[in-house]
Amino acid sequence: MFQTPKDSFKGWAECSPLQLENGEYTTTEKGTLEELFQVLFPGSEIILEPSGGWDGLELKCPKWKGSGEEWVVSRRVICYDKLKWAVFSFQPSKSPGMDGIMPIMLQQGFELLVGKLLMSLRAILALGYIPMRWRHIRVVFVPKPGKPLSQAKSLRPSSLMSFIFKTLEKLLDRHIRDCLVFDRLLAATSNLGFSTFGYAYDIVIIVQGKFAHTVREIIQEALNVVVKWAVKEGLIISPHKTAIVPFTNRRKTEGLGPLILHGKGLKMLDEVKYLGVIFDSKLNWNQHLLKIIRKAQTTFAVVTTHMWEKMGS
Fold first, then answer.
1. Which residue has the higher pLDDT, 71 or 186?
2. Any idea what DSSP says for residue 25?
3. Which residues contact 308 (CB under 8 A, 6 or more apart)?
4. Strands (E), 68-149
C-alpha cells in the first residue's frame, strides 16, 4: 500500500505516456503513476492522503503485547553484534529516506543510540507493528539504458526508505539466511515427484511429464506443499511474482491450467528471468541473446561517445 499525498501527481506533465497491457496509452499523469505502481509493485494499492493528514489517521491495530516466545525471537534476531554489523554495512553517505537520517548519523552516534535502537527494533518485531513514519517511502523511477520509455518495465524503481527500517530489514534477511529455511523446503519436497531448487528468496519447481493434466495435478500439489511450508515458516509466496512457463515444443498447452496459488489463478508465460538468464518456452535462448546484444550495443555507444568527447577536447 502506497500512501500518496494529494499533490503527488503534480510535476508529471513532462513524463511520457506509458503503454498499457491492452495496447493503449495512459492519458493523465495520475494514470501514468498508477501504471508504474501496478507493474513495478504488483499487488500494491494507492490511497490518497486523508484531509487530516497521516498523523491524525486512527488505525485499527490489534492491542496485544506479544507473546513471550515472540520477545525471545526478537532478542535472538536483534542483538548488539548483529545490530552493529547491519548499521555499519551501509555506505555512510547514502541518500536518506523521508526522515532525513543518513547512515553516517547512525554510525557516528552508534554507542549513544544502540540502547534505544535495540529496544525499538525488538518491540517492532515482537509486536508486529511498523511505525507510520517509516511507511513513508520516496520512490524514484530511473530509466534503464537503451529501453523504450513507453514501457513501465523500462524504469527501475529506487526506494528511499528510513535507514533504521533498512537496518531491521537487514537483520531479518540475515536471520532467514542463517536459519537456512530453504534447506528445510528442499528436504520436505525431496520425494514428492517434482524437483525444487532455491537461491536467496527465489524458488524453482520443475515438473516433467507427457500428459498435460497429469503435469497440472503435480504442479498444483507442489504449490500446495510450498504454501503450507511458507505458512509454517512465517513466509508468504506472492502470486504476483510467481510465473508458470511450460517448456515444450507443442503448440498447444491446453490442460495445464488453471493453477491456483493463495486463491488466485496463475498466468502462463512464454518466458521467465531467473538469476539473470531468460528462459523461453522453446529453450532456444533467443530472448536472452537479444538482451545481451542490446546491452553490448548500449555500452558500446556510451564508450564511443565518451571517446569522441575526450578526443574532441
1. 71
2. B
3. none
4. 138-143
